[in-house]
Fold this protein.
Amino acid sequence: MLADALKTAFRSLEELYRRVDRSSADKSCRACGMCCHFKDFGHRLYATRLEALFLVAKSGRPPGEFTENSCGYQEGSHCLARGGRVLGCRAFFCGEAGGHSSDLHEETLAEIRGIAREAGVDAEYGDLGVLIQSLWDAQEAKVH
Ligand code: SF4
Ligand code: SF4
């Protein structure tokens, strides 16, 4: 079982993610999955530790390998962890899809940090693949 504080944090995070998704309703992403090829796209995917915990819990599966150009939750063009994907996945849009809002990203990230602080989750923010791997290595990430 998740600790009560973490459960509460997950609920708050889900609500926040729903808000981000609603605010992106006008984007025209065709879900091609190309922006999940980080190096090709010229970016990296960072996340908070709380988001990594949530992603692992929601995905219900061990991740594949993360590299500098691939996400361990991508299969073909599909995201295998769509319900748990982190803010960086939700807030990023290529120019063709309508563009990225760095303001939305920064404001939401500040809120996520507040949720993590309240729940007593480490404030770590870093490369998603490294975070996910460390969770599995430490066996902190249990699938619920
Ligand atoms: S944001 Fe752009 S690159 Fe990323 S999945 Fe959507 S259409 Fe493809
Ligand atoms: S979690 Fe899903 S949306 Fe995010 S980078 Fe991986 S495959 Fe792409």
